[in-house]
Specification:
DNA-binding; AraC family transcriptional regulator; Arc Repressor Mutant, subunit A; 9 strands; sequence-specific DNA binding; 9-stranded antiparallel β-sheet; Reg_factor_effector_dom_sf; transcription regulation; Multidrug-efflux Transporter 1 Regulator Bmrr, Chain A; alpha+beta
Length: 280
């Protein structure tokens, strides 16, 4: 990860190839981007964007360089696009950054420090599951600025309150648990599809959609405790401890959480995280 950060920092004024960044971390592109997001809390694209705007602001404040030249230097096709992104990041226009006393925001370079973890065991199992069809409600969202972390809980609240969750349980014949599926992840565009769904071969009702989850080998982790804190902690440990300590990496397919019936706020509530994996 440190080598990948060094690579990004040394190429801030050049077009960056995600494959080359991931190669510096000895990882596939998909696995690196997923790992980076879970470990740092920002996407690779968001990190690069914020660092470039930080460096651009410093140049504007300390030199007479033209705004057009700065915008081109940091990868913007036009001054208008640069000004829009700059204003969103700093709250002012690029030209205003030259004024004495102007307050600018800095997004510092990330650094990693060594900490000892792994003192607590992680139980998991490896399962192969054939392709299966799901029916559900779908949300299109973005990972930019953590919007997905706000939108997905709201989506669950909506599905639970408008009867969608109960309807899905019926479509699953009462024998399949509810799934929260993260699919169609496009790291470069910072978008993904999120499904509240159930495994089912039933006809698709109006207002619902269906998709097929491809066959995969899955690493399955159990979460015990009240939602959402318990399962969020499991996600953190998977990417901060389990992946670095094993010979597996994310295979790039959809991943999902499996929610059995029960009280999600209970201290003993059990649910699962399923992640598609492959050997390095």
């Amino acid at each position: 990860m440190k080598d990948a950060l060094d690579y990004m920092e040394n190429h801030m004024t050049e077009p960056m190839n995600m494959e080359e960044i991931a190669k510096a971390a000895c990882s596939s592109s998909f696995h690196f981007q997923r790992m980076f997001n879970l470990v740092t809390g920002v996407t690779v694209a968001e990190y690069i964007r914020k660092r470039r705007l930080t460096l651009a602001a410093q140049e504007l404040a300390m030199s007479p360089v033209r705004v057009l030249d700065v915008s081109l230097k940091y990868g913007y096709d036009s001054p208008e696009a640069f000004a829009k992104a700059f204003r969103k990041a700093h709250g002012i226009s690029p030209s205003a950054a030259r004024e004495p006393g102007t307050v600018l925001k800095a997004f510092p370079r990330l650094t990693f420090t060594l900490s000892l973890k792994g003192d607590k065991e992680m139980d998991y199992r490896i399962e192969h599951k054939e392709a299966f069809r799901v029916i559900g409600r779908k949300l299109e969202t973005t990972t930019r600025d953590g919007e997905n972390l706000r939108e997905i809980p709201k989506f669950w609240d909506t599905c639970n309150s408008d009867g969608s969750s109960d309807r899905l349980v019926e479509l699953g014949g009462g024998v399949h648990d509810l799934l929260g599926i993260c699919a169609d992840v496009k790291h470069e565009q910072e978008t993904l599809s999120y499904w509240v769904a159930v495994e089912s071969e039933a006809d698709v009702p109006d207002g619902y959609s269906s998709t097929v989850i491809p066959a995969a080998t899955w690493a399955v982790f159990t979460s015990i405790g009240p939602m959402p804190h318990a399962i969020q902690k499991v996600w953190e440990r998977i990417f901060q401890e389990w992946f670095p300590g094993t010979r597996y990496e994310h295979s790039g397919g959809p991943e999902f959480e499996l929610y059995p019936p029960g009280d999600p706020s209970a201290e003993d509530y059990r649910c699962e995280v399923w992640i598609p994996v492959m050997s390095k």
